[in-house]
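re: ur question from yesterday

yeah so i grabbed the chain u mentioned. its 356 aa long if i counted rite. heres the sequnce exactly as i have it in my notes:
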Amino acid sequence: MTSRSSKSATSRKAGLPPGSLVFLGERRVDKPTIGVIVYSHDKVRELTVDTAAECVPLIKGDAVTWINITGLHDTAFIQTVGEAFSIHPLLLEDIVSTGQRPKFQDHGPLLFFVLRMLYKPAGKAFVFSEQVSIVVGKNFVLTFQETEGDVFDMIRNRIRSGGGRIRQSDAVYLAYALIDAIVDNYFTVLEDIDERIESTQQATLEKPVPATLHRIHALKHELVAIRRQLWPLRESISMLQKCENPLIPKMLGPYLHDVYEHTFQALEMIDSMREMISTAMESYMSSVSNRMNEVMKVLTIISTVFIPLTFIAGVYGMNFENMPELRWPLGYALTLGVMGSVAVVMVMFFRRKGWL
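ran it thru and got these structure tokens back, copy pasting raw so excuse formatting
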């Protein structure tokens, strides 16, 4: 769903030259921040800087520099980042347009990747979504995020502790690790959705109410939105595998293939859960229909029982002067007795037929 602010920003962008920076999205931080981690196999340095120009001298030697920029609303600030690292204006335009389709582009000395990061904040009932842009150059990685909070804490801890291959590898391996962390977290989100689908299915069988139908539609909408992000992401990773840019070492091939397999597996999970949602929808409609049938059955039986009683009451309610039985002392009691007997006989007949 497109917000009103996004629509107005899109209209302001119409007719502008390619590469014009217009922020499309929701402002989520007060001011942009830059966090830097510089590491090699034997040391790690973490710091916070105010400008992109301060980052450039930190890129030297064989060390890898990870520059994480949080906040995309300040286009003038993003422009200075692009100038400091010679980022093409069209890439900067994609970075500040937060509704981008996941994609990969080879720009010679730079590699550019856009994807959607999903995660569930601690203590929250909703899934948070934000666009992450990754620019990879020789010995440095730039990441652009909309707001604070991400799924990269494990990577930061691996860098600090020296665990795994990350401290022994280059900048492209760091970019792979970031993409892998984002893709792996899709499974965490999908597992949460799967649990909600199971509880919704149970609620559908036990007591189908309109709120259950709203939950089914919400889950279906979530799955469609995630699938819309995963499908082009798989294509982008496939393009990254086939890319012959000298920045990408051959040893990275199996790792990229592993990420590709994970995206394929996530898509299979989504398709399976969509079938479960469809089944839950069918179960809901079937349960509602069965309940309606039971109600109609009871009402029909009641109506059928009262039809002869209404007939008898109607006959004796005509009040003709010469009508027989009108002056019998026991006429009232006899009529009620006949009506009661008819009702009992009809109920017994319905029971014998299995209709009750």
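noticed a couple things. Confidence is low (pLDDT under 50) at residues 1-8. also The domain at 4-286 is CATH 3.30.460.20 (Beta Polymerase; domain 2).
anyway ttyl
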